Amino acid sequence: MKLRDFLRDKIFLLLFHFGCMLGLAAFLCLTGYSVDCVFLILIVWLAVLSFWLLGQYRQRRGYFRRLEGILENVDQRFLLGELMPDSFRLEDRLYRELIRKSNQSVIEQLRRIEDGQKEYREYIESWVHEVKAPLTSIVLLCENHKDECTRMILQENQKVENFVNMALYYARSDEVYKDYLIKETDLQALAEETVARNRQYFIQNQMQVEVDCRHRVFTDEKWIGFILNQILLNSMKYKRDEGARVWIFTEKYEHGVRLTVRDNGMGISVQELPRIFEKGFTGTNGRRQERSTGMGLYLCRKLCLKLGVQIWADSRLFEGMRIVLEFPVSSYLSKL
Which residues does UniProt assign to the signal peptide (predicted)? Predict the structure, then answer.
């Protein structure tokens, strides 16, 4: 709080005092007091008023600085009413009580929203598990009656399963810690398993895949497998018409291991590249394809943040895309 703002807030009080000082000066002059006496009385009045205003300013500034300090150090700022310091001023106590009532209403509303979200998330998880049963049955039926028709059904069934998995992982993305298992993961085996799961896609899109992942990392295998699967689906979606290829490889760097997925597809312009991880962003290519949701890479980044994995991308239009996952290794583990 600045002194200028404080004095501006007290402008009516100052005008009142100045008016009283002029009235008193006129009265004293009319009753025979000398000008020197009147001037001395006004000087004393002005000095007392100035000291009082300065004391009030220091007290209010200290109070609001304490409030700002509380606000900066608390995570849930809507609890300010419960943390406000005590004050002898009546208006401060009234404001505190009003803020408490307002915050109580906000807390109750947040609790209702969280309960609603929890119920919706549980419903989505239950629905996903229920719908996976018929999807698995379709796979078994197609495997037992192999022909061109069932092959196409398997491909479409895999697409449905990918979308179902995306819904499940999106529902769980805010509570990764509940299904989180860190262990040493063989990236070569994980990449090969992910490619094998989408082999029909690669055959259908006439894409070649090269895997060279010689390193192991400590992470959650299931979540990283989902992220890698989304990146590969993105590469297939924006492939070139002829000679489409994808390279999956790892390399060590100063602070850990990099897992890179590179393709020679359509790529993306430099202007749109910073936005590819935004929710719902489809870009020029996505609007041209008319089948992009803008959720795949957004979900990948969200999960990477939860897992402590860095993700970034590099691309040029018509020159392909490179997406990198960086798995950091602590200084303690690096010495083992």
Answer: none
Domain span at residue 281 reads 180-334
Q: What is the pairing mode between strands 310-315 and 321-328?
A: antiparallel
**Interval 11-55: pLDDT, tens:** 898 899 999 989 988 988 888 888 888 889 889 999 999 999 999
When pLDDT is cut at 50, 70 and 90, the band that residue 177 belongs to is low
Does residue 270 lie within any of the structural domains?
yes
Q: Which of 78, 105, 132 is the last residue of a domain?
A: 105
Q: DSSP secondary-structure letter at 83? A: H
Amino acid at residue number 43: I
Residues 80 and 205 in one domain: no
Q: 329 and 234 share a domain? A: yes
Q: Do 180 and 305 contact (CB within 8 A), yes or no?
A: no
**What predicted TM-score, i.e. pTM, was given to this entire model?**
0.67
Nearest to 228 by CA among 265, 193, 178, 176: 193
The predicted-structure confidence for 267-303, as pLDDT tens digits, reads as follows 888 889 999 999 888 877 767 665 677 888 999 999 9
Please tell me the chain's helix, strand, coil percentages from 3-state DSSP, rounded to the nearest 5: 65, 15, 20
Is residue 185 located within the same domain as residue 328? Answer: yes
Tell me the chain's radius of gyration from C-alpha atoms.
34
Tell me, yes or no, whether 187 and 312 share the same domain.
Answer: yes
Token pair of 205 as six digits? 């899109």
Tokens 């409030």 sit at which residue? 67
Q: How many domains are there within the chain?
A: 2
